[in-house]
Amino acid sequence: MKIYIDGQFYAKEDAKISVFDHGLLYGDGIFEGIRAYNGRIFRLDEHIERLHDSAKAILLQIPITAEEMKKVVVESCRLNDIKNGYVRLVVTRGIGDLGLNPNKCPKATIFCIATGIAIYPPEVYQNGLKLVTASTQRIGPASLSPAIKSLNYLNQIMARIEGNLAGADELIVLNAEGFVAECTADNVFVIKKGRILTPPVSAGALGGITRRAVMDIAETFGTPILEANLTRYDLWVADEIFLTGTAAEVVPVRELDARVIGDGRPGPVTLRFTEAYHQLTNSTGTPIFN
Ligand code: PXG
Fold first, then answer.
1. Which residues of the chain have pLDDT under 70?
2. CA 85 → CA 71, 82, 115, 232, 263, distances in Å?
3. Pairing with 152, which of 75, 138, 182, 206 sits 20 to 30 Å away (CA)?
């Protein structure tokens, strides 16, 4: 395995980051999780654009251009012979001193790991996920904008710990007003009487790349997805719920807070989106080898 760090590729054993890196010391940094399918990188431009938006929001100067960043991702896949895989692209504030002041960090650190994907077990797509609602809320936009894909995931990890204790696969996370924001690493969609709804980004959702792709697919189906504030009640009484994420793709939900969703089986709308998403991921993207 060859791992990119700041302009060079290293063997896995030698791919090391300083203990003075503020990404580690303070979670001061941003990242993207990207997938490759069939020798192509899915929605690479969108991922790099979101990375730059995250960087801009935290006043982090990325020392290479967007085009160079895309090459880093493509090259990382190519050198590791990844046709279907997972890429973790990270930009940290870089090496500083033990104070949290980012002014002491002269240069951002960039690293990129391209690896084979540990795909979710097929049962998950056949049976659906079990969810519970987290007791911790999504951090609000006045604190740390949920639109920034930052290295600070303790908010989501606290929820995950709760989920582990409850034997749940994922969690519904509410915002401070009590509306559904998203899950810990996935966006959420609800189907009720033929309408497809998802919380707006302003409710505390990350602007997911998979979320966008599913909304694009819905347009081609002629059933546009509506953004709406949703409560737990709306989810409990939904006909279908599915989650979207780079790792999860489009995955059905069978249960939330002990309420069976629909008839407890993946519904027809969900299955249609799962299928269309596979079609899209397998037929589009930036080529790795040519
Ligand atoms: N919300 C949050 C908080 C996320 O972190 C999503 C939604 C879905 O966004 P995308 O762009 O992936 O459709 C995410 C994505 C992991 C992992 O290893 C998690 C994410 C991305 C990649 C890997 O669990 N989060």
1. none
2. 16, 6, 6, 34, 33
3. 75
